[in-house]
């Protein structure tokens, strides 16, 4: 698809189509004749700094204010961490226009949910638990089978979006089921970036959020984006990256967030197995994920910043050497800050900033 044949380039190099909906992507066919190159002046839509600063742009549309803006988002997690439950919670809330995660107001809109690791029976059971006595929203479309993006899936999603100007989000659970096979002879980074690019073009062309549910590696890393399965091509192509981490058998977890239109943050969350719902928890994420001894130390240090292990052990009644070692480990794990020759301070924490409830245009 070229700008010359389908539309023209705007000042950012994005394709502007003469009419809605954007045209469908041609299917991949290695036997097809290559199209003749079309000359496009790369400076035709250049900005000068003063003109760019004077321009007024519409704010991004949010599927979930403060968490999921328009564009391509990754929601990653270990197996059975609850990422599919979280995706279904968000999809149902947006389709019904009801608050999600216990407190976040959303604008209503239609949602396409590709639950490619589920069966209709399991989806019905999960939705029944989440909805309780509430009616199921008609604005949520669900499928459990779908072609891969290069084999017609991309065009099928575009076709669904074309007649739905009020669409807010497309969820693909999981990305591995729909990305398609990598072309022969293409290095893994380029293959990952190209596969992500198919989903990103849909998000950008239609101005909606496309959420790809993905997996984390078994090995941890200091930077949670390095834990995503695949190459850096996966990370580089995404606009927003979220990693859901929940220790096995525990209700509390942490949603790690970073992206182009969201601030980097960690949000504590709790899963209720009786209702199948996720909700945000108040306070710093670290407060909800520590074992009892570490939580007690952190609570004391918050009240007495700069405390020494001796002061902490005297206040809490623990063994001084054990407290000293625990404080050191907590500092290594980023749960405390160690300064001034062995004094301990609370960690730096970040929270998702508040977003006006109605940044989404009607």
Automatic annotation (TrEMBL):
Transmembrane segments: none annotated. It comes from the Bacteria. SUPFAM superfamilies: P-loop containing nucleoside triphosphate hydrolases (SSF52540), Winged helix' DNA-binding domain (SSF46785). Residues 28-38, 332-342 have a biased composition (Basic and acidic residues). It holds the Pfam family AAA_25. Residues 1-38, 332-362 are annotated as: Disordered. This is DNA repair protein RadA.
């Amino acid at each position: 698809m070229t700008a010359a044949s389908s539309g023209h380039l705007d000042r950012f190099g994005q394709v502007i189509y003469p009419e809605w909906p954007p045209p469908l992507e041609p299917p991949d066919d290695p036997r097809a004749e290559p199209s003749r190159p079309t000359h496009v002046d790369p400076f035709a839509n250049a900005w000068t700094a003063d003109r760019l600063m004077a321009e007024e742009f519409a704010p991004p549309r949010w599927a979930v204010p403060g968490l999921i803006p328009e564009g391509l988002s990754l929601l990653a997690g270990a197996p059975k961490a609850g990422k599919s439950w979280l995706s279904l919670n968000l999809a149902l809330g947006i389709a019904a226009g009801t608050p999600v995660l216990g407190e976040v107001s959303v604008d209503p809109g239609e949602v396409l949910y590709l639950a490619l690791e589920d069966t209709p029976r399991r989806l019905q059971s999960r939705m029944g638990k989440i909805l309780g006595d509430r009616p199921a929203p008609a604005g949520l479309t669900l499928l459990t089978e779908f072609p891969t993006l290069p084999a017609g899936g991309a065009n099928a999603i575009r076709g669904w979006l074309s007649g739905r100007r009020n669409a807010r989000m497309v969820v693909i659970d999981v990305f591995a089921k729909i990305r398609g096979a990598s072309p022969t002879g293409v290095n893994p980074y380029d293959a990952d970036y190209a596969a992500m690019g198919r989903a990103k073009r849909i998000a950008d062309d239609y101005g909606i959020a496309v959420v790809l549910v993905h997996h984390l590696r078994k090995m941890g890393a200091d930077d949670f984006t390095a834990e995503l399965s695949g190459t850096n091509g996966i990370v580089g192509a995404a606009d927003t990256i979220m990693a859901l981490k929940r220790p096995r058998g525990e209700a509390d977890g942490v949603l790690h967030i970073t992206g182009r239109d969201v601030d980097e943050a960690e949000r504590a969350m709790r899963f209720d197995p009786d209702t199948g719902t996720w909700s945000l928890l108040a306070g710093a994420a670290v407060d909800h994920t520590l074992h009892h001894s570490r939580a007690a130390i952190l609570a004391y240090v918050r009240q007495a910043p700069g405390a020494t292990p001796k002061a902490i052990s005297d206040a809490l009644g623990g063994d001084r050497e054990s407290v000293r070692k625990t404080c050191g480990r907590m500092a290594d794990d980023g749960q405390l800050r160690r300064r001034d020759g062995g004094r301990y301070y609370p960690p730096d924490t970040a929270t998702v900033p508040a977003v006006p409830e109605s940044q989404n245009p009607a």
